[in-house]
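Quick review question:
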Protein backbone atom coordinates (compact mmCIF):
# COMPACT_ATOMS: atom_id res chain seq x y z
CA UNK A 1 0.00 0.00 0.00
CA UNK A 2 1.28 3.48 -0.82
CA UNK A 3 2.43 5.56 2.12
CA UNK A 4 1.03 9.08 2.55
CA UNK A 5 4.42 10.73 2.06
CA UNK A 6 7.80 9.38 1.01
CA UNK A 7 10.92 11.51 1.40
CA UNK A 8 13.80 9.82 -0.40
CA UNK A 9 17.07 10.32 -2.21
CA UNK A 10 18.82 11.84 0.78
CA UNK A 11 21.10 11.09 3.70
CA UNK A 12 19.20 10.16 6.84
CA UNK A 13 20.95 11.56 9.92
CA UNK A 14 20.48 10.24 13.46
CA UNK A 15 22.66 10.85 16.50
CA UNK A 16 24.46 7.57 15.81
CA UNK A 17 24.53 7.13 12.04
CA UNK A 18 24.21 8.69 8.60
CA UNK A 19 22.92 6.53 5.76
CA UNK A 20 21.59 6.90 2.23
CA UNK A 21 17.84 6.71 1.64
CA UNK A 22 14.79 8.21 3.23
CA UNK A 23 11.61 7.70 5.22
CA UNK A 24 7.95 6.95 4.59
CA UNK A 25 5.11 8.42 6.66
CA UNK A 26 1.50 7.23 6.94
CA UNK A 27 -1.21 8.33 9.35
CA UNK A 28 1.23 10.91 10.73
CA UNK A 29 3.90 8.41 11.88
CA UNK A 30 7.06 6.97 10.37
CA UNK A 31 6.30 3.60 8.78
CA UNK A 32 9.53 2.84 6.89
CA UNK A 33 13.17 3.91 7.02
CA UNK A 34 15.90 2.72 4.69
CA UNK A 35 17.53 2.93 1.29
CA UNK A 36 15.36 4.17 -1.55
CA UNK A 37 14.72 0.71 -2.99
CA UNK A 38 13.29 -0.53 0.31
CA UNK A 39 10.78 2.32 0.72
CA UNK A 40 7.11 1.85 -0.25
CA UNK A 41 5.45 3.94 -2.97
CA UNK A 42 3.99 7.20 -1.78
CA UNK A 43 0.86 9.20 -2.57
CA UNK A 44 3.34 12.08 -2.51
CA UNK A 45 7.04 11.47 -3.14
CA UNK A 46 9.70 14.11 -2.50
CA UNK A 47 13.18 13.36 -3.86
CA UNK A 48 15.54 15.52 -1.80
CA UNK A 49 18.47 14.88 -4.16
CA UNK A 50 21.30 14.21 -1.77
CA UNK A 51 20.25 16.60 0.97
CA UNK A 52 20.18 15.62 4.66
CA UNK A 53 17.01 14.25 6.27
CA UNK A 54 16.99 15.07 9.99
CA UNK A 55 14.52 14.19 12.73
CA UNK A 56 12.23 17.22 13.16
CA UNK A 57 14.13 19.97 14.93
CA UNK A 58 12.81 20.95 18.35
CA UNK A 59 13.11 24.45 19.81
CA UNK A 60 12.50 23.96 23.52
CA UNK A 61 12.20 27.66 24.39
CA UNK A 62 9.96 30.14 22.58
CA UNK A 63 7.70 33.01 23.61
CA UNK A 64 4.74 33.03 21.21
CA UNK A 65 3.04 35.63 23.45
CA UNK A 66 -0.53 34.34 23.51
CA UNK A 67 -2.71 35.28 25.23
CA UNK A 68 -2.43 38.97 25.91
CA UNK A 69 0.61 40.14 23.96
CA UNK A 70 -0.44 39.46 20.40
CA UNK A 71 0.93 42.82 19.30
CA UNK A 72 4.33 41.10 19.63
CA UNK A 73 3.57 37.61 18.25
CA UNK A 74 0.87 34.92 18.25
CA UNK A 75 0.73 31.18 17.76
CA UNK A 76 0.16 31.55 14.04
CA UNK A 77 2.92 34.06 13.29
CA UNK A 78 5.40 32.43 15.68
CA UNK A 79 4.79 28.94 14.35
CA UNK A 80 5.03 30.20 10.75
CA UNK A 81 8.46 31.59 11.61
CA UNK A 82 9.26 28.23 13.24
CA UNK A 83 8.48 26.09 10.19
CA UNK A 84 10.40 28.52 7.97
CA UNK A 85 13.33 28.01 10.32
CA UNK A 86 13.10 24.21 10.08
CA UNK A 87 11.43 23.72 13.48
CA UNK A 88 8.68 21.10 13.96
CA UNK A 89 8.11 21.31 17.73
CA UNK A 90 8.35 24.10 20.30
CA UNK A 91 7.91 24.61 24.02
CA UNK A 92 6.09 27.85 24.81
CA UNK A 93 6.86 30.00 27.86
CA UNK A 94 4.32 31.10 30.47
CA UNK A 95 5.07 34.85 30.85
CA UNK A 96 1.97 35.85 28.92
CA UNK A 97 -0.94 38.07 30.00
CA UNK A 98 -2.39 36.58 32.09
CA UNK A 99 0.52 34.31 32.97
CA UNK A 100 0.00 30.57 32.60
CA UNK A 101 -0.36 30.07 36.34
CA UNK A 102 -3.32 27.73 36.78
CA UNK A 103 -5.07 24.82 35.09
CA UNK A 104 -7.56 27.10 33.35
CA UNK A 105 -4.78 29.07 31.64
CA UNK A 106 -3.06 25.86 30.55
CA UNK A 107 -6.32 24.87 28.90
CA UNK A 108 -6.79 28.33 27.30
CA UNK A 109 -3.30 28.17 25.82
CA UNK A 110 -3.70 24.61 24.53
CA UNK A 111 -6.87 25.62 22.75
CA UNK A 112 -5.27 28.74 21.24
CA UNK A 113 -2.32 26.68 20.03
CA UNK A 114 -4.45 23.90 18.60
CA UNK A 115 -6.50 26.48 16.69
CA UNK A 116 -3.54 28.44 15.33
CA UNK A 117 -0.19 26.61 15.45
CA UNK A 118 1.61 25.06 12.48
CA UNK A 119 3.91 23.09 14.80
CA UNK A 120 3.36 20.82 17.78
CA UNK A 121 3.89 22.61 21.06
CA UNK A 122 4.34 22.14 24.80
CA UNK A 123 2.79 24.47 27.36
CA UNK A 124 4.70 25.41 30.51
CA UNK A 125 3.12 26.65 33.72
CA UNK A 126 4.75 29.35 35.83
CA UNK A 127 5.30 28.89 39.58
CA UNK A 128 5.23 32.02 41.73
CA UNK A 129 4.86 32.76 45.44
CA UNK A 130 1.10 32.26 45.51
CA UNK A 131 0.22 29.32 43.25
CA UNK A 132 2.00 26.20 44.48
CA UNK A 133 -1.43 24.57 44.97
CA UNK A 134 -1.95 24.95 41.22
CA UNK A 135 1.11 22.84 40.30
CA UNK A 136 -0.56 19.43 40.24
CA UNK A 137 -3.76 20.75 38.59
CA UNK A 138 -1.62 22.38 35.86
CA UNK A 139 0.07 19.02 35.29
CA UNK A 140 -3.32 17.33 35.07
CA UNK A 141 -4.47 19.97 32.55
CA UNK A 142 -1.58 19.08 30.23
CA UNK A 143 1.38 21.28 31.16
CA UNK A 144 4.63 19.80 29.89
CA UNK A 145 6.71 21.34 32.66
CA UNK A 146 7.10 24.34 34.92
CA UNK A 147 9.11 27.53 35.00
CA UNK A 148 10.37 29.71 37.83
CA UNK A 149 11.72 33.13 36.94
CA UNK A 150 14.35 33.57 39.66
CA UNK A 151 15.61 36.55 37.68
CA UNK A 152 13.47 39.58 36.98
CA UNK A 153 12.57 39.68 33.31
CA UNK A 154 9.68 40.35 30.92
CA UNK A 155 6.41 40.05 32.84
CA UNK A 156 8.23 40.72 36.12
CA UNK A 157 6.75 37.58 37.63
CA UNK A 158 7.48 37.06 41.31
CA UNK A 159 9.39 33.90 42.25
CA UNK A 160 8.72 31.68 45.27
CA UNK A 161 10.83 32.71 48.29
CA UNK A 162 13.03 30.10 49.96
CA UNK A 163 10.23 28.96 52.26
CA UNK A 164 7.79 28.60 49.41
CA UNK A 165 10.44 26.79 47.34
CA UNK A 166 10.08 23.92 49.83
CA UNK A 167 6.51 23.49 48.59
CA UNK A 168 7.17 24.34 44.96
CA UNK A 169 10.04 21.90 44.41
CA UNK A 170 8.20 19.16 46.29
CA UNK A 171 4.97 19.49 44.28
CA UNK A 172 6.89 19.69 41.02
CA UNK A 173 8.80 16.53 41.93
CA UNK A 174 5.44 14.83 42.57
CA UNK A 175 4.23 15.90 39.13
CA UNK A 176 7.24 14.12 37.55
CA UNK A 177 7.49 17.04 35.12
CA UNK A 178 10.68 19.09 34.74
CA UNK A 179 11.18 22.48 36.34
CA UNK A 180 12.92 24.92 34.01
CA UNK A 181 14.58 27.86 35.70
CA UNK A 182 15.33 31.35 34.51
CA UNK A 183 18.47 31.51 36.63
CA UNK A 184 19.53 35.02 37.61
CA UNK A 185 19.96 36.40 41.12
CA UNK A 186 17.82 39.53 41.52
CA UNK A 187 19.85 41.08 44.35
CA UNK A 188 23.12 40.87 42.44
CA UNK A 189 21.60 42.38 39.32
CA UNK A 190 19.88 45.17 41.26
CA UNK A 191 23.14 46.06 43.03
CA UNK A 192 25.16 46.11 39.81
CA UNK A 193 22.50 48.00 37.84
CA UNK A 194 22.31 50.74 40.46
CA UNK A 195 26.09 51.04 40.51
CA UNK A 196 26.40 51.31 36.72
CA UNK A 197 23.60 53.86 36.56
CA UNK A 198 25.26 55.94 39.30
CA UNK A 199 28.49 55.89 37.30
CA UNK A 200 26.64 57.07 34.19
CA UNK A 201 27.44 53.88 32.29
CA UNK A 202 24.34 53.76 30.15
CA UNK A 203 25.69 52.33 26.89
CA UNK A 204 24.50 49.00 25.51
CA UNK A 205 27.81 47.26 26.15
CA UNK A 206 27.30 47.51 29.95
CA UNK A 207 24.29 45.21 29.85
CA UNK A 208 26.41 42.16 30.64
CA UNK A 209 28.11 43.89 33.57
CA UNK A 210 24.71 44.51 35.13
CA UNK A 211 23.98 40.76 35.23
CA UNK A 212 27.41 39.08 35.26
CA UNK A 213 28.16 35.34 35.28
CA UNK A 214 28.02 35.11 39.10
CA UNK A 215 24.41 36.24 38.84
CA UNK A 216 23.47 33.12 36.84
CA UNK A 217 25.80 30.76 38.70
CA UNK A 218 24.44 31.68 42.14
CA UNK A 219 20.90 31.08 40.98
CA UNK A 220 21.71 27.70 39.40
CA UNK A 221 23.46 26.70 42.62
CA UNK A 222 20.37 27.65 44.64
CA UNK A 223 18.02 25.64 42.42
CA UNK A 224 20.30 22.59 42.34
CA UNK A 225 20.21 22.51 46.13
CA UNK A 226 16.41 22.47 46.28
CA UNK A 227 16.02 20.11 43.33
CA UNK A 228 18.50 17.63 44.77
CA UNK A 229 16.77 17.75 48.15
CA UNK A 230 13.32 17.04 46.70
CA UNK A 231 14.24 14.92 43.68
CA UNK A 232 12.89 17.52 41.25
CA UNK A 233 13.87 17.19 37.58
CA UNK A 234 15.74 20.42 36.89
CA UNK A 235 16.32 22.12 33.53
CA UNK A 236 18.47 25.25 33.22
CA UNK A 237 16.96 27.48 30.56
CA UNK A 238 19.22 29.61 28.34
CA UNK A 239 22.47 28.79 30.12
CA UNK A 240 25.07 31.43 29.36
CA UNK A 241 28.02 30.98 31.73
CA UNK A 242 30.83 28.51 32.18
CA UNK A 243 30.36 28.41 35.97
CA UNK A 244 26.76 27.25 35.55
CA UNK A 245 27.85 24.73 32.89
CA UNK A 246 30.44 23.24 35.23
CA UNK A 247 27.86 22.99 38.02
CA UNK A 248 25.51 21.13 35.68
CA UNK A 249 28.37 18.83 34.66
CA UNK A 250 29.19 18.05 38.31
CA UNK A 251 25.54 17.48 39.24
CA UNK A 252 25.08 15.10 36.29
CA UNK A 253 28.22 13.24 37.36
CA UNK A 254 26.78 12.56 40.80
CA UNK A 255 23.58 11.23 39.24
CA UNK A 256 21.20 14.16 39.46
CA UNK A 257 18.51 14.45 36.79
CA UNK A 258 19.56 17.86 35.54
CA UNK A 259 19.64 19.20 31.99
CA UNK A 260 20.63 22.50 30.39
CA UNK A 261 20.07 24.36 27.17
CA UNK A 262 22.04 27.15 25.61
CA UNK A 263 21.28 29.33 22.59
CA UNK A 264 22.95 30.51 19.38
CA UNK A 265 23.58 33.97 20.85
CA UNK A 266 25.55 32.54 23.79
CA UNK A 267 27.60 30.44 21.37
CA UNK A 268 28.30 33.12 18.77
CA UNK A 269 28.05 36.62 20.27
CA UNK A 270 29.88 38.81 22.80
CA UNK A 271 29.03 41.87 24.92
CA UNK A 272 31.16 44.12 22.67
CA UNK A 273 28.88 43.27 19.74
CA UNK A 274 26.37 45.56 21.43
CA UNK A 275 28.54 48.50 20.29
CA UNK A 276 27.20 47.73 16.81
CA UNK A 277 23.76 46.19 17.29
CA UNK A 278 22.85 47.89 20.55
CA UNK A 279 19.68 46.73 22.25
CA UNK A 280 18.88 44.26 19.45
CA UNK A 281 21.25 41.90 21.31
CA UNK A 282 19.82 42.74 24.74
CA UNK A 283 18.70 39.50 26.35
CA UNK A 284 18.30 38.07 29.83
CA UNK A 285 20.68 36.48 30.65
CA UNK A 286 23.11 38.56 28.59
CA UNK A 287 25.63 37.30 26.05
CA UNK A 288 29.11 36.87 27.53
CA UNK A 289 32.76 36.78 26.53
CA UNK A 290 34.15 34.04 24.25
CA UNK A 291 35.60 31.96 27.13
CA UNK A 292 32.02 31.21 28.22
CA UNK A 293 30.93 30.38 24.68
CA UNK A 294 33.83 27.97 24.27
CA UNK A 295 32.78 25.99 27.37
CA UNK A 296 29.18 25.88 26.10
CA UNK A 297 30.39 24.45 22.76
CA UNK A 298 32.48 21.91 24.66
CA UNK A 299 29.41 21.02 26.70
CA UNK A 300 27.35 20.40 23.56
CA UNK A 301 30.04 18.10 22.20
CA UNK A 302 30.65 16.24 25.46
CA UNK A 303 27.08 16.10 26.74
CA UNK A 304 27.06 18.37 29.78
CA UNK A 305 25.07 20.94 27.80
CA UNK A 306 22.07 19.02 26.52
CA UNK A 307 20.38 21.18 23.94
CA UNK A 308 20.16 24.30 21.83
CA UNK A 309 17.02 26.45 22.10
CA UNK A 310 16.57 29.98 20.84
CA UNK A 311 14.50 31.78 23.53
CA UNK A 312 12.60 33.37 20.62
CA UNK A 313 11.27 36.52 22.31
CA UNK A 314 9.88 39.11 19.90
CA UNK A 315 9.09 42.70 20.85
CA UNK A 316 8.16 45.80 18.85
CA UNK A 317 10.95 48.12 17.71
CA UNK A 318 9.44 50.81 19.90
CA UNK A 319 9.83 48.53 22.94
CA UNK A 320 13.34 47.57 21.87
CA UNK A 321 14.33 51.24 21.69
CA UNK A 322 16.10 50.60 18.42
CA UNK A 323 15.71 50.78 14.68
CA UNK A 324 15.76 47.48 12.79
CA UNK A 325 19.54 47.77 12.21
CA UNK A 326 20.55 48.50 15.80
CA UNK A 327 20.58 52.29 16.11
CA UNK A 328 19.34 53.15 19.61
CA UNK A 329 16.27 55.34 19.83
CA UNK A 330 16.27 55.50 23.63
CA UNK A 331 18.91 57.27 25.73
CA UNK A 332 19.96 54.36 27.95
CA UNK A 333 20.21 50.58 27.57
CA UNK A 334 18.15 50.29 30.76
CA UNK A 335 15.11 51.69 28.94
CA UNK A 336 15.17 49.07 26.16
CA UNK A 337 13.29 45.80 26.51
CA UNK A 338 15.09 42.41 26.61
CA UNK A 339 14.59 39.65 24.05
CA UNK A 340 14.74 39.17 20.28
CA UNK A 341 13.56 36.85 17.52
CA UNK A 342 15.35 33.52 17.16
CA UNK A 343 13.14 30.65 16.08
CA UNK A 344 13.70 31.25 12.36
CA UNK A 345 17.45 31.89 12.46
CA UNK A 346 18.74 29.31 14.95
CA UNK A 347 19.02 26.35 12.57
CA UNK A 348 20.99 28.07 9.76
CA UNK A 349 23.29 29.76 12.27
CA UNK A 350 24.26 26.48 13.90
CA UNK A 351 24.39 24.53 10.61
CA UNK A 352 26.95 27.11 9.51
CA UNK A 353 29.07 26.10 12.50
CA UNK A 354 28.50 22.42 11.67
CA UNK A 355 29.94 23.17 8.23
CA UNK A 356 32.97 24.69 9.97
CA UNK A 357 33.41 21.49 11.99
CA UNK A 358 32.37 22.74 15.43
CA UNK A 359 29.79 19.94 15.79
CA UNK A 360 29.08 16.98 13.55
CA UNK A 361 25.63 16.79 11.99
CA UNK A 362 25.03 13.71 14.19
CA UNK A 363 25.90 15.71 17.31
CA UNK A 364 23.65 18.49 16.04
CA UNK A 365 20.56 16.28 15.74
CA UNK A 366 21.24 15.03 19.24
CA UNK A 367 21.23 18.53 20.78
CA UNK A 368 18.56 20.00 18.48
CA UNK A 369 16.09 17.12 18.29
CA UNK A 370 16.71 14.02 20.42
CA UNK A 371 17.77 15.73 23.64
CA UNK A 372 15.03 18.38 23.74
CA UNK A 373 12.49 15.59 23.20
CA UNK A 374 14.05 13.72 26.13
CA UNK A 375 14.18 16.79 28.38
CA UNK A 376 10.46 17.42 27.79
CA UNK A 377 9.64 13.69 28.08
CA UNK A 378 8.15 13.20 24.64
CA UNK A 379 10.91 10.94 23.26
CA UNK A 380 10.78 8.84 21.06
CA UNK A 381 7.40 10.11 19.83
CA UNK A 382 9.36 13.27 19.06
CA UNK A 383 13.08 13.66 18.40
CA UNK A 384 13.68 10.38 16.57
CA UNK A 385 13.63 8.83 13.14
CA UNK A 386 12.23 5.51 14.28
CA UNK A 387 9.34 3.31 13.24
CA UNK A 388 6.23 4.58 15.01
CA UNK A 389 7.68 7.99 15.86
CA UNK A 390 5.78 11.06 14.70
CA UNK A 391 6.50 11.89 11.05
CA UNK A 392 8.45 15.03 11.91
CA UNK A 393 11.27 15.71 9.47
CA UNK A 394 13.53 18.65 8.70
CA UNK A 395 15.45 18.45 5.43
CA UNK A 396 18.54 20.67 5.30
CA UNK A 397 20.75 21.69 2.41
CA UNK A 398 24.26 21.87 3.81
CA UNK A 399 25.54 23.60 0.66
CA UNK A 400 22.91 26.33 0.48
CA UNK A 401 24.28 29.76 1.29
CA UNK A 402 22.37 32.85 2.29
CA UNK A 403 22.45 36.10 4.22
CA UNK A 404 20.03 36.67 7.07
CA UNK A 405 17.67 39.52 6.20
CA UNK A 406 15.61 40.44 9.24
CA UNK A 407 13.04 42.17 7.06
CA UNK A 408 12.14 38.77 5.62
CA UNK A 409 11.51 37.01 8.94
CA UNK A 410 7.96 35.70 9.38
CA UNK A 411 7.47 36.94 12.94
CA UNK A 412 5.04 39.78 13.60
CA UNK A 413 7.93 41.86 14.91
CA UNK A 414 11.39 41.35 13.55
CA UNK A 415 13.98 42.78 15.95
CA UNK A 416 16.96 40.44 15.69
CA UNK A 417 20.71 40.88 16.14
CA UNK A 418 21.48 38.60 13.17
CA UNK A 419 20.87 40.91 10.20
CA UNK A 420 23.55 40.46 7.55
CA UNK A 421 24.99 37.22 8.96
CA UNK A 422 26.20 34.90 6.24
CA UNK A 423 25.05 31.32 6.61
CA UNK A 424 25.87 28.06 4.86
CA UNK A 425 23.47 25.22 5.63
CA UNK A 426 19.74 25.98 5.56
CA UNK A 427 16.45 24.15 6.14
CA UNK A 428 14.54 23.55 2.90
CA UNK A 429 11.64 21.29 3.93
CA UNK A 430 9.72 21.07 7.22
CA UNK A 431 7.28 18.22 7.80
CA UNK A 432 5.12 18.00 10.92
CA UNK A 433 3.44 14.60 11.44
CA UNK A 434 3.52 14.00 7.70
CA UNK A 435 2.14 17.45 6.80
CA UNK A 436 4.47 19.52 4.62
CA UNK A 437 4.59 22.88 6.42
CA UNK A 438 7.51 24.59 4.61
CA UNK A 439 9.12 24.13 1.18
CA UNK A 440 12.14 26.10 -0.01
CA UNK A 441 11.78 28.67 2.74
CA UNK A 442 8.08 29.37 2.13
CA UNK A 443 5.35 28.34 4.58
CA UNK A 444 2.79 26.09 2.90
CA UNK A 445 0.87 24.37 5.68
CA UNK A 446 -2.12 24.66 7.96
CA UNK A 447 -2.65 24.97 11.71
CA UNK A 448 -2.42 21.24 12.44
CA UNK A 449 -0.30 21.70 15.61
CA UNK A 450 -1.19 19.67 18.68
CA UNK A 451 -0.29 20.07 22.33
CA UNK A 452 2.40 17.62 23.45
CA UNK A 453 1.55 15.04 26.07
CA UNK A 454 4.55 14.10 28.18
CA UNK A 455 5.21 10.43 28.84
CA UNK A 456 5.84 10.22 32.61
O1 LIG B 1 15.43 38.65 27.50
C1 LIG B 1 14.48 37.92 27.76
N1 LIG B 1 13.28 38.13 27.19
N2 LIG B 1 14.65 36.94 28.63
C2 LIG B 1 13.62 36.23 29.10
O2 LIG B 1 13.84 35.36 29.87
C3 LIG B 1 12.25 36.55 28.67
C4 LIG B 1 12.25 37.15 27.34
C5 LIG B 1 10.92 37.72 26.93
O3 LIG B 1 9.87 37.19 27.30
O4 LIG B 1 10.92 38.69 26.19
ZN1 LIG C 1 13.54 32.90 29.76
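Suggested answer, residue by residue:
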Amino acid sequence: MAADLVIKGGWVVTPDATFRGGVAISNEVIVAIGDDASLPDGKEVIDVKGKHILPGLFDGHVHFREPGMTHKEDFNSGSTAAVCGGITTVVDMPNTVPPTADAEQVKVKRELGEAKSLVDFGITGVVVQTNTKDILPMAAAGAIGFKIFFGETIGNLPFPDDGMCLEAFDYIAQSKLPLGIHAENRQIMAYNTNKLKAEGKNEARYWEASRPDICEAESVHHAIFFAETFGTKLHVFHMSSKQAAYMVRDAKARGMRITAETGPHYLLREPNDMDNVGSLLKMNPPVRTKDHGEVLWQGLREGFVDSIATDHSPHTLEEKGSDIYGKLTKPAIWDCISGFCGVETGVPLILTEVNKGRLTLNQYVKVASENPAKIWQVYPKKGAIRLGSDGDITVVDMEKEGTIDVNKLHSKNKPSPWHGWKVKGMPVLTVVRGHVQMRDGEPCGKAIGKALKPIV
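Why it works: The longest helix spans residues 213-230. The chain has two domains: 3-53+388-401+419-443, 57-375.
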